[in-house]
Amino acid sequence: MKVRDSGMPEEEMWSEFFDPDKILRTFGLDRGVKDIMEFGCGYGTFTLAAAKLATGTVHALDIEPEMVEAVREKCCQTGIDNVRAAVRDFVAKGAGLPSDSIDAALLFNILHHEEPVALMKEAFRILKTGGRLAVIHWNYDATTPRGPAMEIRPRPEQCIAWGRTAGFTFDERERFDLPPYHYGLLFRKPFS
Predict the structure, then answer these.
(1) Is the Cβ–Cβ distance between 114 and 45 less than 8 Å?
(2) Which end of the chain is less congested by CB atoms within 10 angstroms, N or C?
(3) What is the structure's pLDDT at 174?
(4) 55-58 long-range contacts, Cβ below 8 Å, gap at least 24?
(5) In sequence order, what E strands does 89-146 have?
(6) Which H or E run contains 58?
(7) Among 103, 94, 180, 167, which residue's Cα sits nearest to residue 134?
(8) How far is C-alpha 147 from the geometric centre of its chain's CA atoms?
(9) pLDDT by 10-residue block (mean), the chain, 192 residues
């Protein structure tokens, strides 16, 4: 199932919105992260950067075969061999990984989905205890050059509430401004 209002801009425009290395480091994913799950890898904007930080595997899923093929090709061209890119409807079928198996998960620009809590619960399921869920979304601002329609664009407070409903903890100090058009939230799977 495609995420509603999920049209991707051209890659050149998309890449102007992010500094992937800086964002992943802001979330602390440059320290002690072995395996990462990326829900909705798109062009691989964050996939390749994550692969350079992870000491294990980056599982990159997308429902669009063209996006997955583009990620695979980029990995091949750059000699990155720790990415497992796959076409998968993770909204309908889950991540396809065992419970408690991943150190970090990425939900970037995807929580305008019809079932955001279900998606966060799937991230929670596959994360190890103490694992981190990094969320990025478009600012709740109609002047952004892209992003989902305002009526489905989540505010940070909505994402925080969804994350807590899914079982995550959240500390306000792990809320980030990601200029020019995004915010970031870091959730943690609590220790029992």
Answers:
(1) no
(2) C
(3) 97
(4) 56/82, 56/103, 57/82, 57/83, 57/84, 58/82, 58/83, 58/84
(5) 102-108, 127-138
(6) strand 58-62
(7) 103
(8) 15
(9) 52 69 95 95 93 97 95 97 96 95 96 92 98 96 87 96 98 95 96 78
